[in-house]
Automatic annotation (TrEMBL), chains A, B:
It comes from Nitratireductor aquimarinus. Residues 355-433 form the ACT domain. Its EC number is 1.1.1.3. The keyword Oxidoreductase applies. Belongs to the homoserine dehydrogenase family. This is Homoserine dehydrogenase. It holds the Pfam family Homoserine_dh. It is an enzyme of class 1 (oxidoreductase).
Length: 437, 437
């Protein structure tokens, strides 16, 4: 048996503690699987005195994670600090430069500095593993980076934020408002006190930016993501979706188009009968469409200490199974130096079906005016539902359109036209429809 | 860049031709991902003259796959011959003994000789990769063997035969009989002329036996699998399942129990709202339940030339990324020599819910007699539906029971009791219910 692999962990929160516990409890089994031991030799966290309920053994304590990252006491640096800069960035960079393998769960860091860090890792011939950064315990990085070699990806999309999916699931199940479901999620610890990051799509965008790079061999570009959150989704939308055979999910979607690569995060209508529509609560799911394989879907726990720890341990085990001098595949599937610049597709060129819900004044000619605006923009309609929604005054009604494939440009123009006609009571709701198997 | 990896392929049917095509079309991209070229240097197939529509380049032709397997012209032997013995076995064994890596799609071979072949591979320090052997293009082997390190699996189950799933899907969608759907599947090329292997569960059993070894660290034991096929599933079952909130799927299930490990293949009721219930047609899906991660589900194309080729190429790329002298993780997750003997759980000890459909004579006391037999065996009932099925004579009726968690033993005794009471018109239908998220 080879020498033990020496692990240093920076960050001992929920995930860090789960990793340490799993290393201790599964030591014999992990050793059997990896062909050598993984030993915790060093740790770093903010508060040395806190009891984390785990056995840190003889691990050396570092107050400074960067010092730990550089230390000759470790072979692998596990970064569980979080944040897209500051100590997390400094420590990961230092570890790679010192020739240490790195395992990180930090999507924000990778979405900002991923390519630069990959460049260092590849120069140094060390591994940079980050399965836990996207969709928690679901092995989507391993799948895209390794299993799908030889596949050209055309689209990757998924439910990658458990908080948002929990809220949408509860809104549908219980008929409650967005605000009530958010409050419940906060009570249960599924949402932060400031939930913006989760419900407005930022978290999903970080994860999506990493998948986009893996899917299309391009540089990571999280700033180029079109983003809409779920805070304006109402019960009227949920009910209308259900009637029309759809369910609303917050999806991140990256797709190859003629004009570039679309990256978008928004509430999305998916067919009720599709597999992804059955992904409820805090569960995540990612679907990948390729030319050779077809469509693959992975679903499972997207967050939580244990699910994330599972991915971190898997990454560590992959390093343990490799041996000194071993060259692994590149960090983002292709060598960092060969990743193409990201070419953004214009959002207005997006093609797809649309759900449009308009609350209008109930008077003669409204319907005809709406139909004309659609026709003028060459939008053909799959279904039209006129709706006396319970909550509306008598002189108002809901008109719900589902379009066939059209463009974002056409839909925006048509909706602006209906607004200009003066029939609309308030802002129309426009939700994109996504094909899903 | 390192030297090219020399590939020899034995078997040039649909899958083999897809692999060759993909290697040719994706050569540049694969080279970029792997850091070296993969070159087809040798092939073997039955008929040298056949036009397979692919470019075999300068590959050396071998009439005998065993000779190819031993040849010094290759680094990797790709076995796409099929069959659990004969040339496939001889060639894989010869390749491993010659110190060549092996990629195979052959579930029958592995389910019979997997441990013996793994032993040779591990002694020789070469890789034996077999992603395509289970669930086609779905990366379930990579997930279980690599990503889930540190997880104890409690249950693995899945839809692993596209033919059976296609037939069940069509029966539900179209209201057609098993026989009609089978004939349709045969017409479309989804079922063989002799469909026994697929519809009676043998194919699923082969795949399950491999997953069982990966899940529980035990030796492969395909002969110890309890097996029931789908040929006696009727429209009455499909309709009753639907009414009660279930869908019928042919599942392979391996589960840890107090008395050993259950391996079973049978028609199964899964909740209509579960993710796995939405897996339709020829699509496959595998769910894995573990202590650390929770439940993971993978779904995608389970068969077909391209989907299978995708998995084969992924396996080849993993070998290309590794370097001479590199020690990979063991073939079945744990070293072959340390796999425990398979300890079979008694099927009669199986615990779970049951669906029981009985066609009985419509006369006084029948219901009471059935209820008594259930109570005598301590079976408590979740629901009882009495059913005037369209197809039945007036003096007969369907009684459908769904039990709470009970044992196979109790159900068999209770049903034998009802039969002994003389109320039954024909054989009762008993279908196990499986929990699924």
């Amino acid at each position: 048996m080879s020498e033990a692999l020496r692990i240093g962990i920076a960050g001992l929160g929920t995930v860090g503690a789960s990793v340490v516990r799993c290393m201790t409890e599964k030591e014999a089994e992990l050793t059997r699987q990896c062909g050598r031991m993984m030993t915790l030799t060093a740790v770093s966290a903010r508060d040395r005195t806190r009891d984390r309920g785990v056995d840190l053994g003889n691990a050396k304590w570092f107050d400074d994670p960067v010092e730990l990252a550089r230390s000759s006491d470790i072979d692998v640096f596990v970064e569980l600090i979080g944040g897209d800069s500051g100590p997390a960035y400094d420590a990961v960079k230092a570890a790679l430069e010192a020739g240490h393998h790195v395992v990180t769960a930090n999507k924000a860091l990778l979405s900002k500095h991923g390519v630069a860090l990959a460049t260092i890792a590849e120069e140094k011939g060390v591994l940079l593993n980050y399965e836990a950064a996207v969709a928690g315990g679901i092995p989507v990085i391993k799948t895209m980076r390794e299993a799908l070699a030889g596949n050209d990806v055309s689209r990757v999309f998924g439910i990658m934020n458990g908080t948002a999916n929990y809220i949408l699931t509860r809104m549908e199940e219980e008929g409650l408002s967005f605000e009530d479901c958010l409050a419940e999620a906060q009570r249960l610890g599924y949402a932060e006190a400031d939930p913006t990051f989760d419900i407005e799509g930022h978290d999903t965008a970080h994860k999506l930016s990493i998948l986009t790079s893996l899917a299309f061999g391009c540089q990571i570009s999280a700033d180029d993501i079109y983003m809409e959150g779920i805070s304006n989704i109402s019960q009227a939308d949920i009910r209308a979706a259900s009637e029309l055979g759809y369910r609303i999910k917050l999806l991140g979607v990256a797709q190859r188009t003629d004009s570039g690569i679309e990256q978008r995060v928004h509430p999305t209508m998916v067919p009720t009968q599709s597999v992804i529509a059955q992904v409820h609560g805090v569960t995540n799911a990612v679907a990948i469409e390729t030319d050779v394989l077809g469509e693959l879907l992975l679903s499972g726990p997207g967050a939580g200490g244990n699910a994330t720890a599972s991915a971190v341990i898997g990454d560590m085990a992959d390093i343990a199974k490799s041996r000194p001098g071993f060259q692994h595949g590149p960090v983002f599937g292709r060598p960092a130096a060969k990743l193409k610049p990201y070419q953004r597709a214009r959002m207005r060129a997006h093609e797809g079906g649309y759900f449009i819900r308009m609350t209008v004044h109930d008077r003669a000619g409204v319907f005809a005016a709406i139909a004309k605006r659609m026709a003028d923009n060459e939008i053909s309609l799959e279904s039209i539902v006129q709706h006396a929604d319970g909550g509306l005054p008598e002189d108002q009604k809901n008109v719900i359109l589902v379009t066939h494939e059209t463009t974002e440009e056409a839909v925006r123009k048509a909706v602006d036209g209906v607004i200009a006609d003066g029939h609309m009571v308030d802002k129309p709701q426009v939700i994109r429809i996504e094909r899903a198997a």
